[in-house]
Specification:
The protein is α+β, with helices and mostly antiparallel strands and about 300 residues long. The chain has 2 domains: about 250 residues, Hsp33 domain; about 45 residues, HSP33 redox switch-like (CBS domain Like, Alpha-Beta Complex), CATH 3.90.1280.10. Helix content is about 30%, strand content about 30%. The chain is built from 11 helices and 14 strands. Strands 1, 2, 8, 9, 10 and 11 form a 6-stranded antiparallel beta sheet that branches. The longest helix is centred in the N-terminal third of the chain and has 18 residues. The relative contact order is 0.19.
């Protein structure tokens, strides 16, 4: 692998392998995508910061799966931020939103939020509850879902706890979200390493494999949060700096973008499923407004618009 800059430094998933030790990884870099999602709502800084980490984590985890549909990460808890949802489609469409209690949030110390070197505190912002990972491939397929109690100081630690408890997979995860540049735009980065069975039938000494895993984790930990979001440090250059001595090999990147799946027709289908009396109540108002929680787009329906929905 060369240290040559990649022509697309942002909004991508960069898969890689460290072949001598059968390690697989993904580096995620989000620029305009994460800034657009977080800027669509007037989120307080703590909410934007931890939602940004959740979105970066969802993109990192989706990259390890083979699916045709939507991968969703969701937290539901008793803290000031009671709900976080982030999802990624097979095509790379990313979106996310959070629900929170502003009064309770104001009581949380804001020191360090928005800085790349400090990760938002899960115990203070999210509290106790669960984190769920769902793969939905459509109405005619069985949905896969893994759920685990929230356990960890950061979202990265919560995800690693899930892998240890539910999947029996050894994995290391680093996340970073911060404002950067003169315009203070949001940026996010994520790095994940996992152990996988060796391919091709070659044999390795168990001690060498274990030493390789430990070495890779130490090298990964040397990546600073600021480097994960640095717009002047391309993903390939960062991977080269971290793992070049062990022969890191990169693969084709996968682009991602902020794109919501809402539409007027989709909202209309949802309204059509409401009970008849609810539709009649809406028709008594001059205009019914439905706002998408993900992208904040407003859809207006007049009484005439709602009439055919009641047929």
């Amino acid at each position: 692998m060369s240290a040559e800059d990649h022509p697309r430094p942002d909004d991508l998933v960069q898969p890689f392998r460290i072949d001598p030790f059968a390690l697989r990884g993904r580096l995620v870099r989000l620029g305009p995508t994460i800034d657009r999602i977080l800027s669509q709502h007037d989120y307080p800084e703590p909410v934007a910061a931890i939602l940004g980490e959740a979105i970066a984590l969802a993109v990192v985890l989706a990259g390890m799966l083979k699916y045709d549909g939507v991968f969703t990460l969701q937290t539901k808890s008793d803290g000031p931020i009671r709900l976080i949802v982030a999802d990624v489609s097979t095509e790379g469409a990313v979106r996310g939103y959070a629900q929170y209690d502003r009064d309770r949030l104001d009581q949380v110390p804001a020191q360090g939020l928005g800085r790349a070197d400090i990760s938002p505190s899960v115990p203070e912002l999210i509290g106790s509850g669960y984190i769920a990972f769902t793969v939905d491939q459509g109405e005619h397929t069985e949905r896969y879902q893994g759920i685990v109690d929230i356990a960890g100081a950061t979202l990265a630690e919560c995800a690693q706890h899930y892998f240890r408890q539910s999947e029996q997979i050894q994995a290391g995860i680093k996340l970073s979200v911060a404002r950067a540049g003169k315009d203070g735009a949001w940026r996010a980065g994520g790095l994940m390493l996992q152990r996988v069975p060796p391919e091709g039938g070659y044999r390795m000494i168990a001690d060498d494999v274990e030493d390789g895993w430990r070495r890779a984790m130490v090298l990964m930990s040397s990546a600073t949060p600021a480097e994960l979001v640095d717009p002047d440090l391309s993903p390939r250059r960062l991977l080269f700096r971290l793992f070049h001595e062990d022969g890191v090999r990169v693969f084709r990147t996968h682009p991602v973008e902020a794109r919501c799946r809402c539409s007027r027709d989709r909202i209309a289908r949802i309204l059509r499923s409401f009970p008849r009396e609810d539709i009649e109540d809406m028709r008594r108002e001059p205009v019914t407004i439905v706002t998408c929680e993900f992208c904040n787009t407003r859809y207006e329906f007049t009484a005439d618009d709602l009439a055919p929905l009641d047929s």
